[in-house]
Specification:
The complex is a heterodimer of chains A (352) and B (322). Chain A is of the alpha+beta class and 352 residues long. Chain A contains eight helices and 21 strands. Chain B has helices at residues 10-33, 119-149, 154-168, 172-186, 191-217, 220-228, 233-263, 275-286, 289-320, and strands spanning 48-56, 61-69, 72-79, 86-91, 102-103, 108-117. The longest helix of chain B has 32 residues, at 289-320. Classes of the chains: A alpha+beta (352), B alpha+beta (322).
């Protein structure tokens, strides 16, 4: 079966600088994906290449088996059936809300056009605002108009370039969920670009982490968090620290906090130095535990405290503890490790 | 925070009035020193004058009768050699013959008066239409050049840059001479065509830069949104980018067209009788040098002020629509 969206070994450059290198990913069906990464990682460039605004230096972009881009040839954006929703929305200031939404429906019969405009305005809850101009609407409403406009011509894929980042946090997550629902109902695939992992988690089924123009991992949020492919993903997604350890005979790992079981890391031999990813939720506050650590900092999170702990060796740990365990900095508390998913990386520089 | 106390305005306004009075007095004393005699009464006739055209007898003969009709009188002449009587109409108060008088051929019988447009009005009209036509052509040249300037095609871009730099780097007066004496001679152009051509090319280069800046000021997202919604690059430019850009460049364009009206005075050097040339010609016959130049300046001021008001109104009208 041909995948819905297929990116094959893409290079995109603003000569002489290569911005996206060797990116390959597949969305098997019209689901919702996200390209996540810090600013300057090439995620927007990748999105613009998919939209048809940037030529490819190498590779191929296919949507439902049809090639859209290859080096030296780019199907014009208007022929791709790919919708766009921007960070700055780019609503047409001289057109009313209805005309903005109907903009991509030129060539439709008037009655069908009107019906489609009304359908979309209902979908985004703006059917009363059809006659108004974009500047008369609130930020969230403008966002909805931009969504309706992009969806009106029934694109196969909708590309969203940080469209929620100008909204406040609560509205952002609500709208991200709402847009997700609308995309699924319309049967339109979605690809979001974001630097905010929580937005990505709320919006996407599959997330690709980009760093310095390379796709580090394309996976579900759960796997990115619990099975990061490399050190960058481990560090970028969620919180956590890398605790030094050593491989012992039988694949066990010795650390300052005791020995850990689990699947052995391939290609390591006993005696090798490694680092174990320890998430805050892997560290359990347990007064009965013989392991002690000193509280260095604490951050109140409502239901929980996030403690920064110092081990006797000087290594730091993060610990998420229910907020009735209130300890002041300087106190020593008992902890134990409860790691379900053991993630290890070979240590790159040995600590003398 | 307490409201900031506004210092009173009237002392400064008073000072302004004093300075203006001082300037006027200075002007008066200066003209007194050179014993200049102001003859403002000579000026109006150059706008509009009452022309007296004397009517002469077409044939030699005798005045048969004079029939007054309104302010005019109809003189009936019986030609000397016989035949049908001939009629000549003159205004009654200029009548110089009586019934029964014998008149020679071409003898002055009286006059007919009519209002004629004077050279200042005529010059003003020439200035306005030359500016208008060259502005219109310049706008088209500027739009095309501005688009070429932004084209990805290096040939178009290179040509546009060359043209803009050539025009902006040389004086308009020199361009007018080159256009008239060189291009005009080669292509056998009329002086008016040469003048309009030079002005249009001149203003086109500036308009091109204004349009380019305007197009570049429209966020890229606008055209990309239009492209992703199915518009081609050309349609996007026409329906999305240019209307928004035009709204933004209206103030600098207005400034450019006002400059054009003033710059058009330079075409007087190739003997196009515009407002400036008319002024110079009138001075040679009226000797009212100061009055005419002041009047000419005032006329330019009136035209440019009206234009700037119209464009200001247009600008506000556009601003309301978004």
């Amino acid at each position: 079966m041909t995948p819905f969206l297929d990116l094959i070994d893409l290079d995109v450059a603003y000569p002489p600088r290569r911005v996206v290198s060797e990116v390959s990913l597949q969305m098997p069906c019209a689901g919702i994906g996200c390209l996540l990464g810090p600013s300057g990682c090439g995620k927007t460039t990748l999105l613009r290449a998919i939209a048809g605004f940037e030529p490819l230096q190498r590779g191929s972009i296919r949507l439902e088996g049809v090639e859209l881009s290859r080096p030296g040839w780019t199907l014009p954006p208007e022929q791709r059936r790919i919708g766009l929703m921007f960070q700055d929305l780019a609503l047409f200031p001289h057109l009313t809300v209805a005309d903005n939404v109907g903009f991509g429906l030129r060539g439709w019969k008037t009655r069908e056009r009107q019906a489609r405009i009304l359908e979309l305005l209902r979908l985004v809850g703006l059917d009363d605002e059809a006659r108004r101009y974009p500047h008369q609407l609130s930020g969230g409403q403008q966002q909805r108009v931009a969504l309706a406009r992009a969806l009106a011509p029934r694109p196969r894929l909708l590309l969203l370039d940080e469209p929620f980042s100008s909204l406040d946090v609560t509205l952002r997550e609500d709208l991200a969920r709402e847009v997700r629902g609308i995309l699924l109902r319309e049967g339109t695939g979605g690809l979001l670009v974001s630097h905010d992992q929580f937005e990505a988690f709320a919006f996407a089924d599959e997330i690709g982490v980009l760093h310095e123009g390379r796709l580090r991992q394309w996976d579900s949020a759960y796997h990115l968090y619990h099975r990061p492919a490399d050190r960058f993903v481990a560090d970028f997604i969620g919180q956590g620290v890398l605790l030094p350890g050593w491989i012992e005979a039988g694949g066990r790992v010795k650390t300052e906090l005791g020995e850990l079981d689990g699947a052995p890391l391939s290609g390591v031999a006993p005696g090798d130095a490694v680092e174990i990813l320890v998430r805050p939720d892997d560290v359990i506050h347990d007064d009965a535990s013989p392991l002690r650590a000193e509280v260095v900092e604490r951050a109140f999170r409502g239901a929980e405290f996030l403690y920064t702990l110092k081990l006797p060796s000087g290594a730091r740990l993060l610990c998420l503890a229910p907020s009735h365990h209130n300890h002041a900095p300087g106190q020593a508390i008992g902890i134990r490790l409860d790691i379900d998913h053991r993630v290890m990386f070979r240590r790159e520089t040995l600590i003398a | 925070m307490p409201a900031k106390r506004r210092s009173p305005q009237w002392p400064w306004q008073g000072l302004l009035v004093l300075i203006l009075i001082g300037l006027a007095a200075g002007l008066w004393f200066a003209t007194q020193r050179i014993h200049y005699e102001w003859r403002w009464s000579r000026v109006p006739q150059y706008f509009l004058y009452h022309d007296e055209a004397s009517q002469t007898a077409p044939v030699a003969g005798v005045v048969l009768a004079i029939n007054p009709s309104g302010a005019d009188s109809r003189i009936e002449l019986q030609p000397e050699g016989g035949g049908q009587p001939v009629a000549v109409t003159v205004e009654t108060d200029t009548l110089k013959v009586k019934p029964g008088d014998a008149v020679a051929e071409d003898q002055d019988l009286g006059a007919v008066r009519s209002w004629k447009i004077g050279p200042l009005t005529w010059g003003l009209w020439v200035t306005i239409w030359i500016s208008f036509v060259s502005g219109l052509i310049g706008m088209v040249i500027g739009l095309i050049t501005g688009l070429c300037r932004l084209s990805p095609n290096p040939t178009l871009r290179g040509l546009a840059i060359l043209y803009i730099e050539l025009i902006r780097g040389t004086p308009l007066l020199v361009q007018i001479f080159i256009f008239y004496f060189f291009i005009g001679t080669v292509l056998n152009l009329d002086r008016t065509v040469a003048g309009i051509g030079a002005l249009a090319l001149f203003v086109g280069a500036y308009v091109a830069e204004i349009i380019r800046a305007g197009i570049q000021s429209i966020p890229r997202g606008q055209s990309e949104a239009a492209r992703s919604l199915g518009m081609s690059a050309t349609e996007t430019m026409i329906y999305i980018v240019l209307p928004q850009a035009f709204k933004r460049v209206l103030p600098p364009l207005a400034g450019q067209f006002i400059s054009l009206i003033k710059d058009s005075s330079l075409v007087s050097v190739i003997a196009i009788t515009d407002l400036t040339k008319s002024g110079r010609e009138i001075i040679t016959s009226s000797f009212a040098t100061f009055e005419i130049w002041f009047t000419v300046a005032l006329l330019y001021l009136v035209v440019t002020s009206i234009l700037s008001q119209v464009l200001f109104w247009l600008e506000r009208r556009f601003a309301r629509s978004d």
